[in-house]
């Protein structure tokens, strides 16, 4: 187990170094930060002095080493657009994105798994066919269109939910939360539903397909021959073995919820990292873009590590193989 974790950590470090190098290359090929900071009318002496202060007059690999060292400490310099530290901007926006992704993931799992199990066990029923039809719509419709439709119906038409913003939040030190206020929940409903629709339908279809596959295996037939009840077979045996690929997809989808919440945050003007990234791209704010890229890579690496560890909890075959040295 320790060797497995050590290998994964080494792989994660290699991935993060590669991502950091890609982020660093943004500074080399996407404009000159000195021009953004001083403007086009800056004097040559000012430009030389600022380049020396920023370390841009040093060799390429020395600059990359300094960037890597600062990135490991969470420092990415100053935002070219806002003039504030990038780390502070990320910390301010991170809670909003994490809360939105968390609520969307809970919705997707809480609704998608039961729907998938029902569609597998009652695959000939009318309700099962309705679920499959809705899943096709959820997979096919683009996220921005779902958000616009929800705004049109529930904000403009019915006036039930606000169409933008995060609502009232509660501050705990440097962390802000809208899940502790009624107005915060009122604001998060539509963005969370918009972000969860695709993940929900994907999980539902995956659970249904895996459940049908497991129900056809020999050990399920043996369990029926032993006289076990349908409840014990479906939920004690079939569903447990279905959860292994579901954990994989759910873990990766959680990373995607955080990384690709950009569209949802833009549609609903949700003050998270996705909206910050869109604004950074618009103004070529390279330090913010680099920080966002590194942070998203770190989140994916951490989630993949957690998913790998969860395999040992769900699938006993992996524990046996590791104990046997395979």
CATH topology of the domain at 87-282: MetI-like fold
**Strand arrangement, largest sheet?**
1-2
The N- and C-terminal alpha carbons lie at a distance of 12 Å
Helix content: over 70%
Q: Please tell me what the overall shape is.
A: globular
Mean pLDDT: 77
Secondary-structure content class: mainly alpha
How many individual β-strands? Answer: 2
Architecture overview:
By secondary structure, the chain is mainly alpha-helical. It has a domain at 87-282: Orthogonal Bundle (MetI-like fold), CATH 1.10.3720. Helix content is 76%, strand content 2%. The chain is built from 14 helices and two strands. The chain has helices at 2-29, 33-38, 44-54, 60-72, 86-121, 126-140, 143-157, 182-215, 218-225, 230-259, 262-267, 273-282, 286-314, 316-323, and strands at 170-172, 175-177. A two-stranded antiparallel ribbon has the order 1-2. Strand 1 (170-172) and strand 2 (175-177) form a beta hairpin. Helix 8 (182-215) packs across helix 10 (230-259), helix 10 (230-259) runs antiparallel to helix 13 (286-314) and helix 12 runs antiparallel to helix 13. The longest helix has 36 residues, at 86-121.
């Amino acid at each position: 187990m320790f060797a497995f974790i050590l290998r994964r950590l080494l792989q994660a470090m290699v991935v993060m170094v590669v991502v950091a190098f890609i982020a660093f290359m943004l500074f080399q090929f996407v404009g000159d930060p000195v021009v953004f900071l001083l403007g086009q009318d800056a004097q040559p002496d000012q430009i030389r002095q600022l380049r020396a202060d920023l370390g841009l007059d040093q060799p390429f690999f020395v600059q990359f080493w300094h960037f890597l060292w600062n990135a490991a400490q969470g420092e990415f310099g100053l935002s070219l657009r806002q003039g504030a530290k990038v780390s502070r901007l990320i910390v301010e926006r991170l809670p909003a994105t994490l809360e939105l992704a968390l609520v969307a993931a809970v919705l997707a799992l809480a609704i998608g798994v039961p729907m998938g199990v029902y569609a597998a066990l009652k695959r000939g029923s009318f309700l099962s066919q309705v679920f499959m039809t809705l899943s096709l719509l959820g997979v096919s419709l683009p996220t921005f269109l779902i958000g616009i439709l929800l705004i049109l119906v529930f904000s403009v038409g019915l006036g039930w939910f606000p169409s933008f913003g995060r609502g009232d939040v509660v501050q705990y030190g440097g962390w802000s939360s809208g899940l502790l206020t009624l107005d915060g929940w009122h604001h998060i409903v539509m963005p969370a539903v918009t972000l969860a629709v695709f993940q929900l339908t994907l999980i539902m279809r995956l659970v249904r397909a895996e459940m049908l596959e497991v129900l056809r295996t020999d050990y399920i037939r043996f369990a029926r021959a032993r006289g076990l009840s349908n409840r014990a077979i479906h939920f004690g045996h079939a569903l447990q073995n279905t959860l292994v690929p579901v954990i994989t997809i759910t873990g990766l989808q959680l990373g995607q919820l955080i990384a690709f919440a950009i569209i949802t945050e833009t549609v609903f003007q949700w003050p998270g990292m996705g909206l910050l990234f869109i604004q950074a791209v618009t103004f070529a704010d390279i330090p913010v873009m680099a920080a966002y890229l590194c942070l998203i890579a770190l989140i994916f690496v951490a989630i993949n590590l957690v998913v790998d560890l969860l395999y040992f909890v769900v699938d006993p075959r992996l524990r046996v193989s590791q104990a046997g040295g395979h």
